[in-house]
Amino acid sequence: MIIEKPNLDDSKHIKSTMDAAVLTEVKNIEIQKREIPTPEADEVLIRIKTVGLCGSDVHYYEHGKIGDFIVEKPIILGHEASGEIVKVGEKVTELQVGQRVSIEPGATCGKCDHCKEGRYNLCPHVEFLATPPYDGAFCEYIAMRADLVFPIPDSMSFETAALIEPFSVGIHAISRGKLQSGETVVIMGMGPIGLVTAAAAKMAGAKTIIGVDLEQSRLEVAKEMGATHTINLREDNLDDKVMKYTNGVGVDLAIETAGNPKAVQGTISSVRRGGRVVIVGMSPQDEVPVSISKIIDKEIDLMGVFRYHHTYPKAIEMLASKEVDIEKMITNQYQLTDVKEAFEKAIHDKTNTLKIMINP
User: Which of 67-71, 118-122, 200-204 has the lowest mean pLDDT?
Assistant: First the structure.
């Protein structure tokens, strides 16, 4: 892939307005003119190059809410973003115009107990791109706090840089699950988050990585991402196959990324006695039935995952190594003017779509 080189004179030619894809109501997106933001003293202005379409974006587009987060006014979606710095605030010293960057989308307060103990992903005051009421990155420019902007190497594409955000979820999932080199892991759901989790597990040294899904096309991509075995639930029995691939023991770590109640139950049955289960996917149901007796009998460690923290430098280093070509999960690319079409594609053609990228 040809890497686009920055134009260091771009900051002199910034317009006053930009195009933005705005969700005005459920299933309706309009391209509107918005003022280009002026960066504060501790911010940089970034020309957006690539943004990944996330499942959360689709939920807001299709339903207007996710749990307690409700779209109450027009909003710009998109939070998996990369771009190029075109202006820097007067107090910014470590970044400069022309740098190619990946963007961490959550601005936390830095003052609450969660932030102070290092788990800033739990900050109750976070301002997260494309989470109501905060606008996201399906637009030409955004201003971001400088500490949330991470330079990428020249060898890294803007597409890979945008995928650092979902890849961070995978890194955090295996970290929460305490995955050790040589261990076995099953990942329920080979959507984008499941795929990046498989890639993270491979780079962490997992010996056996079992990818599970209903779609064979996704399982084929899973093999490219690091899965050593796959299970197609349309054809195979989950428990039988897991036992076959783990010599009758079960996996050390089971990770659920599908947001499906049956997948949650599958993690409990797949994991070995004394193993760990990590729940990443957000189920549409608040309450999911699980076997408490199995959790107790196996003495399972059960953990939840909410976003990530302190992952971006590590993620950039891991993906720069090219041990896994994470771009193999990209199935479609659209221009900003075609964002509505991209959403409809994601909703109605799940068999042939994995990660859709928007290129402002």
Answer: 67-71
Locate CATH 3.90.180.10 in the chain: 10-162+325-359
- Write the secondary structure of 234-272 as one string of H (helix), E (strand) and C (coil): CCCCHHHHHHHHCCCCCEEEEEECCCCHHHHHHHHHHEE
Q: Coil, strand, or helix at residue 85?
A: strand
Q: Is the pTM here over 0.90, yes or no? A: yes
Tell me the pLDDT tens digit for each residue of 186-226: 999 999 999 999 999 999 999 999 999 999 999 999 999 99
- The CA distance from 129 to 19, in Å, is 17
- Find the radius of gyration of the CA atoms of the chain: 20
* CATH H-level, domain 169-304: superfamily: NAD(P)-binding Rossmann-like Domain (3.40.50.720)
Hey, what CATH class is 10-162+325-359 in?
alpha beta
CB 267 within 8 A of CB 277: yes
